[in-house]
Write a structure and sequence with these properties.
- By secondary structure, this protein is mainly alpha-helical.
- The chain has nine helices and no strands.
- Helix 3 packs across helix 7, helix 4 runs antiparallel to helix 6 and helix 6 runs antiparallel to helix 7.
- The radius of gyration is 18 Å and the shape is globular.
Length: 190
């Protein structure tokens, strides 16, 4: 028996439909948060990787959403960018072949894995360790692709693609944990 049949009210949506809409809204919000974070892009003179706020949004996605929704959010962000939505760092819209060849594509690919990893781990190992695992995924994917795209050895890829970003990314992780905790304590439906 459906909710409509049990309540007799043909005009109110079912509770399940409301939950789906709320989840969809949060997925969309995390897509937009990641896109907004990409627009805070500070180029560094010694590396092709800019400093952005995307990592904050990716970790927040994993801290707030379930694994499937976290994957959807980051896959939608990357997929829509590859389809021409100009929201990668610096408002870049890159065709697929150019994006894959870019020095930073590995970080984007890492976002789609990191957010669901954080979501899967947060309740088992705590949010700090979950965010640490998410950062490790982002850095592994990013530095590996950076090495291949720019013909660097592993040491140079770490020097240019991980070490300069680690201190600030740890701050972003701490901030994401605080924001997620605030939202959960204050009646957020996620």
């Amino acid at each position: 028996m459906s909710t409509l049949e049990t309540t007799g009210d043909l005009h109110s949506p079912s509770e399940a439909a409301n939950r789906v809409l709320i989840r969809f809204g949060w997925v969309a919000a995390m897509v937009l948060a990641t896109a907004a974070g990409s627009q805070v892009a500070i180029p560094l003179p010694f590396t092709p990787v800019p400093l952005t706020l995307q990592v904050f949004a990716v970790l927040l996605t994993g801290l707030l959403l379930g694994p499937v929704e976290a994957l959807w959010a980051q896959a939608a962000y990357v997929g829509l960018g590859l389809c021409g939505v100009p929201w990668f760092a610096g408002l870049a819209a890159l065709p697929l072949h150019a994006a894959v060849a870019s020095a930073t594509f590995g970080y984007l690919a890492g976002f789609t894995v990191a957010a669901p990893i954080v979501a899967l781990l947060r309740d088992h190992v705590g949010p700090a360790r979950a965010c640490g695992a998410g950062l490790a995924v982002i850095y592994a994917a990013g530095a590996t692709h950076l090495a291949f795209a720019t013909d660097l050895d592993a040491s140079a890829a770490l020097t240019l693609g991980v070490f300069p970003f680690l201190p600030l990314d740890l701050v972003k992780a701490a901030l994401a944990i605080r924001v997620a905790g605030f939202l959960r304590r204050n009646g957020s439906p996620v």
